[in-house]
Every structure is written in C-alpha cells, then in structure tokens.
Amino acid sequence: MSTSPSPSAPRSAQSVYAALADWARTDGLVWIYLFKAIAAALLALGIAMKLDLPQPRTAMTTVFIVMQPQSGSVFAKSFYRLCGTFVGLVVMLALIGLFAQQPELFIVATALWVGICTAGAARNRNFRSYGFVLAGYTAALIGIPASQHPDGAFLSATTRVCEISLGVLASGFVSAVVFPQYTAALLRTTVRRRFSAFVDYVSAALAGRIDRSQIEATNARFVADVVGLEASRSTAVFESHDARMRSGRLARLNTEFMTASTRFHALHQLMNRLRTEGSMATVDALEPYFREIAPLFVKAGEPVLTASDAAHVAQQLADYRATLPKRVRETRAALEAAATPDHAARLLDFDTATELFYRFVHEMTEYAQTYASLAVDTHAREKWLERYVPKTNLIAAGVAGARAAIVMTLLGAFWIATAWPSGTNLVLNAAATCALASASPQPARMASQMAVGTALASLVGMLVTFGVFPHIDGFAMLCVALAPALAFGVFLTTRPKYMGVGMGYCIFLCFLAGPDNLVQYNPSGYINDALALVASMIVSAAAFAVFLPPSTPWLRRRLLADLRRAAVHACRSRLAGLRNRFESGTRDLVFQLNALAGKDESQRRDSLRWLFATLEVGNAALDLRHELATLPAQPQYAAGTAWRAAIDAALQAVSVLFDRPAAARYERALAATDAAIAASARVLQGLFHADGAHDAATPPREERHQLQRIQSHLHFIRTALIDPQSPLAAQAADAAGKQGVRHAS
C-alpha cells in the first residue's frame, strides 16, 4: 500500500524557515555583533602582545569604545577617535612641557582642556561629538600618567597612540570583513519607509481620517527620522563610494522632506481652522483639489515605494501642478461672483489655502524627483550645498564643560593631597565619564550605570586575573578565558536598558583584567584601581545630579526658548540659507526636548505644539520676506512706503511675541498683523501709490499675484496666532478676557 507525503511536512519546513529568518533578522544580528566585538578585541590584544607594546589592554579597550553594529559607524567613530587622539596628544605634550614641575597648574590646565572638549562634544552631533570627547580624554589618559615621569612623556604618548590606533584598525577590519552590516542598507530602508509613511499621512489627512493624537505621533516620528537620517548619512560616507556619490542627494532629500512636511502641516491646520469657523463655502471649493492628490502617489494602482518608481509620481505631480493656476483662477472667479457679507474674508481664506496647496505640490514634486534620482549613480541633483544644521544651547554646552572641569579639578586636588597611588585613574576616568555621559539625555543615570558595570567588572576581573590566569598558558587559552567574560558585557550593550552597564563593564574589564606582556599579580594595586574607577563614576554621577542637571526644568525652558527664537530669526535674520537652518534647527531642538521628556507625554505634546506654532509662523514669515525682497523696483513697492512699514512692524511684533510670549505682546502682534493686512489690501486694490496719489488702476497680473501672496502670508500668520490649539492660546485667552474674544476676519 502506497503512502502519500503528508501535507503538513512542507508547512512545517516553511514555518521552521520563517522562524530561522526572523531569528536572523533580530537575535541573530545580536549574536553576530557579539562575535565580531570579541574577535576584534582578541585580535587587537594578540597583535599588541606580538608587537611587544607596553599596554596591550589599551588596544583591547579601544575596540569596545569604537565598536558598533554597522560598519559605517565603526569607520566614522574610528576616524574621529584618531583625530581626537592626535589632537589630545599634541595638547598634552604641550601641557607637560609647560607644567611638568607644577602639578597643581598641570591639573588645572588639563581640567580646563577637558572642559573645553566636553563643551565641544555637547555642542556637536554624532561622531564629531566623539572626536571632541577623545581629544579631552586622550589628553588626560596620556598626560596624567606621563606627568609622573616627564622624561619619558613622549615615548609613553607615542606608544599609547600606537595601541589606540591598533584597536581602531582591528575594529574596522573585523567590522568590514566578518558579516558586515552596512549603514547604507539601513539608509535605503529608512528613506523608503519615510516616503511611504509620508504619502500615507498626506492621503489620510486630506481624507479626514486622522485625528490630533495621530498627527502628533506621526510628526514626532518624522522628527526622529530627520535626525536619524542625517546621522546615518554622515556615517555611510565612510563605507563605500556609492554612499559618497549620493550623499548630497540624501542631504537634499532630508531638507525637501522637512519643507514639504512643514508646508503640508500648515495647509492641514488652515483647513481645520476654516472648518471650525464655519467657512464651508471656502472648504467646499477646495475639497475637490485635495481629493485629486492621493491618486497621484500610486503607480498602476500600487503604492510607490522604490526610488525608480518615484519618477512616475514626480511626473504626475509636475503635470498636475502645471494645470493648477488656471483651475484655481476659475474657482476663485466663481467665489468672487457670489456676493456675500463675508465676501472679502472668503477670498482671502481661499487665496491663502490655494497658495499653501500650490507650494506643497511644488515641494512634494521636488521631494519625489530627488528620491527618484537615487536610482542612478550620478545626477545633477547631487550638487546641493545646504546641509542639516543642528542646534544646541550654548549655555547647556558651557555647563557640561564647566561640570567636567570642576569634577576633574576637585578629584585632582584630592589626588595631590592624599598621594593615592591610583589617583591617576581616579582623575582621568572622571574626565572620560563626564565627557561620555554628557552626550546622553540622562547623564546621571548613564554615569550610575557605568559605575554598576565597572563594579561588576571589578569582581569578574578579580576572578579572571587571580583565579584563572595563573593556571593557563598560551594566547589560545587566554582567549578561551577572556571570551565568556567579555561576551556578557557585549550582550548588555545590545540592550538599551542596560547599555551603560555594558559599556562600563566592557571598557573597564579590559582596563583591569586585560593582560600586559609582563603580567603583575598585585591584589592591592588591583583593588585600589577598581576603587578609583568606581569612585570617579560615582562622583561624576553626583555632579550630573547636583550641578545644573540636564534633566531639570531649566534646560527644557532654555531649549523651548531656543525653539521659539527660531521664529524670531525667521522674521529678522538674513535670508541667505535661513530656511534650511530654520527647518533643521527647530527639529533638532524638538528631538532634544523629546529625549529630555522621556515618557512624559504631556511634555512631548507641549514641545510639538510649540514646534507647530514656530514652523507655521516662521515659514510664513520667510515666504513673506522672500516675496518682499523680489518685488519690482518701483516707487510704490519701495521699502520706505507706508504699507511696507506696516508689514515690517507686524514682523517685528510677531518676533517680539515669540521671543517672550505675553498677553500684551500678543495683542500688539495681532493688531500689527491686522494693520499690515489692511495696508497690503489697499495696495492690491490700487488705491494709493508711494507718493500718496490715488489711482484706480490695478497692477499688472504678475504684480497683483505677488501682492496677493504677500497678503496670504500675512493672513496665515494671523490665523496661526488665533489658533485655539496653539500654545499662544494662553496669551490669547488673557487678552480676550480684557478686550473680548477676537474672530478671524
């Protein structure tokens, strides 16, 4: 009797394959990274011992400092570590030459240098920040031990640089050769996912299928994507020639995404305000245009995801944009023909909404074209000079630097006063902890976790050094003894909750238990070094918690003030490159605010509300100033005319309001905006010229359209000011309590 194969067998094989594939994408990557980190550390240790370098453990320690899951991150971090190391070397040799005989002055000078570097690390982003950290830490790492023997300072410094360079090279080699994980692949996934998510968001918002909470969550994710894409782009250029060839387009893509998302949010908010105010005639006239957008984002009925398919979307958007002006004029003529009591207000609302809509379609077309250009190696859109410009509060950066300098000075004074043999480790590791933890959103927690990891490493290191090393022989057995101890720490670094513990464990297990060519079994010295390391981190954590801690409300207030001040710059600063600085700076500040907020949703919502208000008013002010700067060189448009002075006064009043919100300033800003709208309306109607003579003639069509755009930007600023969902609503409520509720005209 024959038997047929069970149908469950193929399904079982498929389920096993699916489970293995899922494991390979998740936990499998963790185990690969764990293997690579240990292999790189042992490789660096073996080569350093073979070259008879005095402290091979420094090379092994360097591996755990620079190792990252993606190869590009390793290369970038290694590059900046080498740069920081050489800068620190030069500075420390100079300080030793100047203050070799004055230990007090040497400690103070070193503390000042470390403070400057820590402030630079807080001021910069990504691995450039790490370069500043290493410039300070290397100076302390080389200089403080060398200061005990100034005659051998140069030899000590050069050998230490060789050990660090060896660790860097070993990390880069293993990361590039053994199961490489490229940042460029992650970058492609991020770009594709963000384009798809933004298209879905636009379609859902225009169809009315999204509420306020979803809008906030989506925009918070977009902010993180913008910052993350810039970080990935800056590291991907170290990986391959292809990534470098597309770097300019990726920077342009990030900028165009910010501009398109800002424009769309402004349009969506304006439509919501019109619905709230009951301006249904205007809404009904605009709705048909919005329903036409979603079909433009598909190809053959399927959503467009890849760069090669984005060219189809870009062409559809370009063709649609070409037909818009004529259609909008026809719709406006129909609205104009309907004589109603709110005729002027309805036309102004319509002009403002259609101007925003047209700009959104234009900017979305540019975004799609840049995305499509990524499908080819070279493209004209690569020539893009504007880059993401991060924004950091100078006071916060200065406080981070001052904190590091004070901690190092106090511990240096303690070392000099007590002559503790392990005082060098106490001082230099305090410098390292302050610098590394200052880049974390919660530095006190990070320093505390590193202290826990270091204490754990001290116990494990003691077992390995005094219980295992005396019973083994040869490098192979040394690797067998070290690998399990190191694997535990590397595994901890892959868990975000315990990353600080894992970092402290790995780095300082190498520092304490990493063998040198001449192994010394000195239990008292080991215990002293371990106590010094843990004490330095505890003091650093205490300094972060007590001395102007970054998590306190003062820093949040400073960052919110910087966010509002972006609107002030939009109203006042020089226009060249201002929009890019405005767009990137606001999002960078909100990213920092969200990191400070942690899981506090009320603070996150408040940050996003201020972001929306700043983006709306700031972009409208930039558009307004651009239109004013490109007016024809005619007397009626000169800067000294009454209507231009009214607009300047409105921008000044709005900037003063965002600088320091208050009810009186809100009233002045709203009144000045009303006056500017009225003045621009009179010019648009041709009721007066620069010399004061009245004339019924209207300007040519191009000039008339430009004046309409100016009036639309002013009107949008006004609607943003009176928006009840704006954080300025508190000032509006105070003003309304005194003078009555205002309504949109």
UniProtKB/TrEMBL annotation:
Keyword list, A-Z: Cell membrane, Membrane, Transmembrane, Transmembrane helix
Q: Please list every transmembrane segment annotated in the UniProt record, as residue ranges.
A: 30-51, 79-99, 105-122, 129-146, 166-187, 394-416, 475-493, 498-514, 526-548
Which cellular component terms (GO) are annotated to the entry?
Answer: plasma membrane
Please give the Pfam families that the UniProt record associates with this protein.
FUSC (PF04632)
Q: Where in the cell is it found?
A: Cell membrane
Q: Which GO terms describe its molecular function?
A: transmembrane transporter activity
Q: How does it sit in the membrane?
A: Multi-pass membrane protein
Q: Look up the domain of life of the source.
A: Bacteria
- Indicate what this protein is called per its UniProt record: FUSC family protein
Originating organism: Paraburkholderia acidisoli
